[in-house]
Amino acid sequence: MARRGREVAGVLPLFQVESWLAGRLLVSVPYGVYGGVLASDSTAADGMLAAGKRLAEQLNARSLEFRSMTPVDETLPVTSGHASFRRDLPGCESGLETFLPRKARAAARKATERHALTTVFGANHLDAVWHLYARSMRRLGSVNYPMRFFRALAAQFDSDMVVQVVRYSGRPVAGLVSFVHRDEFMPYFVGFDERVDLYGVSQYLYLESMRWAVRNGCRVYDFGRSRVDNHGAYEFKRLCGFEPRPLGYQVYVPGGRPAPDLSAGSAKWRMARQAWKYLPLAVARPLGAWLSKSIPG
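RESULT FIELD:
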């Protein structure tokens, strides 16, 4: 924290991650899309950056990562691996009829007409969403966070955490955990049951979340980040009418050593990710929960 007299001039939230895969990491912030420096002016920002670098050196950290929306340090290169997707929501639900592009709207409508999908909201559906999320992560070759992490988030965020389930014939087939901050709505953890192949369920899920957001006074829909090389998620968001904005992530590496690469798109982990897809869920869920502590998201 930077102070100017009695006033707070800047903050830099930093978390120390002891990674079994990469060693000690400092991240602002892990498991989050955004982070970095918050400062009232450039002098305070520069002071926070310098203090963060000194701390990384003192702790012998492998790297210090700033997950900023825009670059904060002129001396550091910008990693070009992620983009964010944000749009202003319409002022009323009827405006959603033209908010999504025609094809996305048609897919959501057909999902409703063909499959009689229903949506329910409520924290009591958190377990169902987590199981759907864990299935999807296994299918993608990625590790899942533990159920206790979801419960801790629910306890902390309370009504600012929105839990949503889509049902088909009474069965949960898709789920979404979203967060609300002021007038912004952010869908965050999503899961689908790949055993039930329903056309348009993704578009329907997100359209219903947009309806909830508009009904509850949200003005911005933040579709989160996607890796530029993750063509599925990246293109899906574009087809929903959201344009990518490159994120200003930057990494400081003390001593000029190579930065550790834990990204899902790294060739280093390609074989492991492929093998992960074939693990039984009874193995992938607890093992993923344990490994997730070493991967700051």
